[in-house]
Design brief:
Helix-turn-helix domain-containing protein, DNA binding, 5 helices, mainly alpha, 434 Repressor (Amino-terminal Domain)
């Protein structure tokens, strides 16, 4: 089945690329990011190269960048797409 949504792998890579770009814009080295966040340097390097990281480590990195609130909407209850579809099909 074809999906317009990116795969988990693609999403991980996109997040890693955005993280690396933000870290570099802020002129923070990988070593400094690792020390200040409590994430090992190896985990940080692996994340920035592959997109693979534990959720806890990702949240630590994002927190250090002041972007933890970006995760507020993840898995938040909202409109059910099936309910919205019913509005248009039931007359």
């Amino acid at each position: 089945m074809y999906s317009l949504e990116p795969t988990p792998y693609e999403t991980g890579l996109q997040i890693a690329q955005r993280h690396r770009a933000m870290r570099k814009r802020l002129k923070i080295s990988q070593q400094e990011m690792a020390e200040r966040s409590g994430v090992s340097l190896g985990s940080l390097k692996r994340f920035e190269n592959s997109g693979k990281i534990s959720l806890e480590s990702l949240l630590k990195l994002v927190h250090l960048l002041g972007r933890l609130s970006d995760f507020d909407h993840v898995l938040k209850e909202g409109e059910n797409p099936d309910d919205i579809e019913k509005l248009f099909t039931n007359k």
